[in-house]
Amino acid sequence: WFGALDAELRGRTPDYLVIHHMEPDHSANILNFMEKYQSAVIVASKLAFGIMQNYFGTSFPDRQIAVSDGSEIELGKHKLVFVTAPMVHWPEVVMSYIPDLKLAFTADAFGKFGTLGREEPWEDEARRYFFSIVGKFGVQTSNLLKKLDAFEIETICATHGPVLAENIPYYVGLYKKWASYVPEEDGICIAYCSVYGHTKAAVEALAQRLKAEGRKLAIYDLARCDMYSAVTDAFRYSHLLLASTTYYGEVFPFMREYIAKLKERMFRDRTVYLVENGSWAPVAAARMKDALSGLEGLDIRDKITVKGFSTEPINIEW
User: What pTM did the predictor assign?
Assistant: First the structure.
């Protein structure tokens, strides 16, 4: 990192180190930077300097500029205008904007998973990133997006993922939808846990029928899938079906974990179907319903019970 930085500086000394976010994947080299460049000044939010003290034993009190909404720093040809972004997804986050370039440095907002240089739809991994990392803070993200509406943005530089230099309204529109918890598509996410394969067979038969009807869907075996992909598609679609084996009078552990992750991210405003299986005393649906309690706007439909191997196909009212 320092080699790349020195190559760009070409013998010059940096005046500022601008800190948008203090999470260690972004900030671990601050102390090394400040020791290497003795005249540099750190620009960050007041909260960020408190976190620096915790991480490095110093907040560089004689070499700091604290910024908040509307703060500006003249760089010469360009200037930076700062926007606070609390809880997107830490409380100390700030973003910066260069007016003459119409360029925004957005910290973790508009970030994505994936690998640079690989051709893949931005929204797939950006959606998974949002609901994995930022999703709990939809209200705070919506507040930030209202602030950004005041700026004319032609380029977004996030700290995760590629530079976005075209079709900016599309990306902002998706973020507004995700942050408001509105379903992105009319479809269904099916998430299940199966011990002997009977629950799996039942939900896969349902999935085939829904596909034949032209429904959009995603189906996940929670014991084997990427859990956060399953979380993401629960937010993506308008309907969610949870199917679990009864296990020690409870739901199967992977289902318990899945519902916990949905609750952590403020899952809401969806139609939910509950399918339970049990050889003699199925109770998983009641346990799943209890686990979902407290979430807003869920239309939880009547439970569907399977006992062992289902000879009757699962049917849901859309």
Answer: 0.90
